[in-house]
Amino acid sequence: MEIEVKDINNNVKGKISLSEKIFCSAVSGSVVHGAVVSYLANQRQGTHATKTRGLVRGGGRKPWKQKKTGRARHRSIRSPIWRGGGIVFGPEPRDYSINMPKGMKKAALYKALAIKLTDGEIGVIDSIAVEKPSTKAIVEMIEKMGLNSKTLLIVLPEKDENIMLSVRNIPTAAVISVSDLNAYYISAFDYILFTAEAISILEVKAEVA
């Protein structure tokens, strides 16, 4: 399986072969859904909390005597039925994380890439380089490649501060290193643009595993 390699001006520079192990995954698509759910759940901090009647300050004294007042009996002004009282069945700190085996995460990544390739939503560029942060340069590249109407994820072989700073002001684009790539990021964007070196690193990792 081959794919065209283009430059930043959208000119075809050649072709490279893609690993069938990565881009022709035959596993069920449900594994991608599981990986996305796991990723989003693991982003939740779970620090939400409310105070029960035992945690709300005050209310140590009985508001009025039990009988002969004509009013309903009450033990504390911090009862849940009082304004300023405790909360009943409110959220408490909890762990939302969903553990997923490394093998399943990798399978989900490969399946997500295979789906994107089948849909024609993966491209390869020979290289991306900017001497200093320049949003204008990245925007021009995106327009020349005809991707300005899509959400775009640029996959680099390693973190590049200049490119990251150039992309962060573009609301429809994001950049990530190939080591941080996962099924969630693949699914979240309309189009995935790899550099040729990033493809090579991804395939080397797949062979080593």
**C-alpha end-to-end distance:** 21 Å
Question: What's the CATH first level of the largest domain?
Answer: Alpha Beta
Shape: elongated
Total domain modules: 2
Count of DSSP strands: 6
What is the correct CATH architecture of the largest domain? Answer: 3-Layer(aba) Sandwich
Q: What would a concise description of this structure say?
A:
With 209 residues, this protein is of the alpha/beta class. The protein has 7 helices and 6 strands.
Describe the structure.
- The chain has helices spanning 20-23, 30-42, 102-118, 135-144, 161-167, 183-188, 196-208, and strands spanning 2-6, 12-17, 122-125, 152-156, 173-177, 191-195.
- The protein folds into two domains: 2-30 and 102-208, Ribosomal Protein L4, Chain: A (3-Layer(aba) Sandwich); 50-90, no CATH class.
- The radius of gyration is 27 Å and the shape is elongated.
- Helix 2 (30-42) crosses helix 3 (102-118) and helix 4 packs across helix 5.
- Helix 5 links the parallel strand 4 and strand 5.
- With 209 residues, it is α/β, with parallel strands linked by helices.
- Strands 2-1-3-6-4-5 form a six-stranded mixed beta sheet.
